[in-house]
Amino acid sequence: MDYLSEFITIALVHLVAVASPGPDFAIVVRYSISYGRRIAMYTSVGVGFGILLHVAYSLIGLSVVIKTTPWLYSAISYLSAAYLLYLAWGALRAGPSDSAATVSTSGQTAAISPKKALVSGFLTNGLNPKATLFFLSLFTAIIDIETPFAVKAMYGVYLAVATGVWFCFLSYLLSTSRVAKLIGDKGYWLDRLMGVVLVALAIRLVTL
């Protein structure tokens, strides 16, 4: 029962965190609008795998090392910011000519491969230093030090799966016919907006 209480706390904290707009949200929305449901879901699965990376180094204590080593944390922050700017560049260049790849459930050919979408999701989450801070606080302030390693690992698997499911749901929601119709031929403006969001997130990473 102690573990159940701990798990419920973790689940609630994660729910708030995953629902908050951030790089993961921006990239999933961007890929949903530009490439459709299938590619966005691959991206969502990649985000979930990124969570496993944070869980892995948290379980062996590396999150504390990363946080307490200024140059290492800064390096990760700048690397993450550079990657977000790379993604933003592609989004900001979106225009009416991209409308053929707008969200659809009719099986259109996407402009990027599922593998690239999966890797993009993984890197977006895996390089996010804010996720490092989240898991640092999770494994030091919420999860008891006496909690068995196997139980902690199960928590991690849940967090990865829950994150992937959440963003898959978001991908599905954005690619429904009603939403796709609402976006219509002006979907590239939302793509550009996500580009601006990614730029803002990159700047925030290196200025905070």
TrEMBL record:
Keywords: Cell membrane, Membrane, Transmembrane, Transmembrane helix. Pfam families: LysE. The chain crosses the membrane at residues 6-27, 39-65, 71-89, 157-175, 187-206. It is a multi-pass membrane protein. This is LysE family translocator. Its main location: membrane. The keyword Membrane applies. It is found in: Cell membrane.
